[in-house]
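From the methods appendix. Each design record in this collection lists the tokenized structure first, followed by the designed amino acid sequence. Records were kept in a plain field format so they could be parsed without special tools. The example shown here is representative of the layout used throughout.

RECORD:
FOLD TOKENS (125 positions):
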């Protein structure tokens, strides 16, 4: 089975701050692991490794960029991660996805990358 394009990228997990409402660590359906987060203001937490301007890499990211990556908390990832769509995954272009893919040396995704749409495997990015 061909991997989902996100599982051969990982760029968003190394380029963006993952900031979310702190209660997501207590939400019974999300349960973002508190031990993997840091406070980021009075009402927000962020995933460890995503708040620095240098060497950003989410603590939950596993694997090697551009090869094969996964998310160690995929079922419990915070809202920003759940809402971020790869370019054309939902049929629309995502400029932010395209830009970070280019920054790590990958081509932007196209509609053709979704011709054989692959579901994300559980516990994968």
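DESIGN:
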């Amino acid at each position: 089975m061909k991997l989902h394009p996100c599982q051969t990228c990982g760029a968003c997990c190394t380029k963006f701050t993952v900031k979310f409402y702190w209660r997501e660590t207590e939400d019974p359906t999300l349960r973002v692991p508190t031990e993997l987060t840091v406070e980021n203001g009075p009402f927000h937490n962020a995933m460890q490794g995503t708040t620095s301007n240098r060497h950003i890499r989410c603590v939950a990211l596993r694997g090697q960029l551009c090869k094969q990556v996964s998310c160690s908390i995929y079922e419990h990832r915070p809202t920003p991660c759940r809402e971020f769509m790869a370019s054309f995954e939902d049929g629309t272009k995502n400029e932010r996805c395209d830009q970070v893919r280019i920054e790590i040396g990958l081509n932007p995704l196209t509609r053709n990358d979704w011709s054989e749409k692959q579901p994300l495997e559980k516990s994968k990015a």
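APPENDIX NOTE: The chain is about 15% helix and 15% strand.
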